Amino acid sequence: MRTRNARLEVIVSQLHRLQFGRKSENLSGDQLNFALEDLEAAAAFIEAEHEQADTAVKARNTASRRANRGNLPEHLPREEIIIEPEDKECACCGGALHVIGEDVSERLDHIPAKLKVIVTRRPKYACRSYTDGVVQAPAPARLISGGMPTEAFVADVLVSKYVDHLPLYRQCQILARDGIEIHRSTLCPLSRLRSF
Question: What ranges do the domains of the chain cover?
């Protein structure tokens, strides 16, 4: 506390001399900053030592850091990773160690969009005895007749363009990073399908 008061008294005297001293004794702003930087660094070092020694201040700072992080929403799926110690036997007696508590931390992860190809196979069946009838399941209806995109792909193009304001040429660049070469003139009719 005494060192802090002494430091503050030095700063006040320097500022007092700057304000009310002779004009020939005035320090330039840069010179005053150099002097103050050394004092501030020394004061910060002393305050850091005091904070490390005081457990209450340390606990308060830790609690404020944790409170500031925010909570992750409960609806997000969780993937738990349990990290066990290598040896779960007591070093003294060789008995089994028991769980008495745990530290839990959460981190937010992002999984980028995944592209996949849906292959629809429609086998044809026929009787070996008769040559007349071939049976095959009807093809599922498509959003665009004869088109390759699924409903989910079209929805993604629409949301990216009209909600996220992502132009078609950028969407083409994003798809090209995954090896899918689609020209924006192909995506343009998809963007006209919007019904809202």
Answer: 2-68, 124-191
Which tens digits make up the pLDDT trace of 70-127?
677 888 888 898 888 888 787 788 788 888 888 888 887 877 778 889 998 999 888 8
Q: If 0-12 CB within 10 Å is exposed, 13-18 middle and 19+ buried, where does residue 106 land? A: exposed
The 10 Å Cβ neighbour count of residue 94 is 7
- Digit-coded pLDDT (tens) for 26-63: 556 666 666 677 777 888 888 877 777 777 766 776 66
In whole angstroms, what is the distance from residue 171 CA to residue 187 CA?
9
Amino acid identity, position 56: A
Residues 193, 195: Cα–Cα separation, whole Å: 6
pTM for the full predicted model: 0.49
Strand intervals (E) in the chain: 124-126, 134-136
Which H helix or E strand runs over 21? none
